[in-house]
Design goal:
Length: 252
Amino acid sequence: MENGTIYLVGAGPGSVDLLTLRAARLIGRAKLIVHDGLVDPEIFSLARPDAKLVSVAKRRARHTLPQEDINALLVREALKGHDVVRLKGGDPFIFGRGGEEMEEARAAGVRVEVVPGITAANGAAAAAQIPLTHRDHASIVSFVAGQCKGLTEQDWAGLAGKGRTLVIYMGVKTAPQIAEKLMADGLAPDMPLAVIENGARPEMRVLRGPLAALPELVEAERVKSPALIVIGEVTADIVAQGAKLAIGVEEQ
């Protein structure tokens, strides 16, 4: 029996309208969809009626399946001859652990196809009308995981500042450490930032303030994941200020 194919599919930042055509077509024909918890349920309306949906949702300190078990599940089903759509929020290769799943599949001799998705940074910033790059304000963008191991030991000097934009994924719970670390590494306490909660979704909120006030902002507004922290001059630019009027978001 011929092995199936594992499709690592990016579901985008949360709106079914932001799926790629390739992603929508694969979802529509798949008999097995293994999906993250942040995938918009509306996306499942594209699936065939007899499709089996398997949730491997992850939340902080609470995983439906450990990553190793997810890898094993994908490979096991593919070795049975089944095509598997592994549906991941955002893009599979940007903090999506798609690289690990790909490596496991290759080691087992299983074919893999990667279907890119709009990553949360692009989708959320666009929805909030915050340009990650801007000719007058930023020519460098960095993506950082805010919950990585050894956070305080890492050197973040130069990742944010004049002419640069820093986007922090998964940083809600570690907001105090992030602010302290960036200021310790030389970033000005009054550097503007935006916190985008539920980016590109109907319930999106955009909160703004200076770097030094990040912990208080997150706590006072009870920010919950999924949320991104965008740090840099682009968040205070006249374009971003105009977005407040356009989408009715909050500003601190």
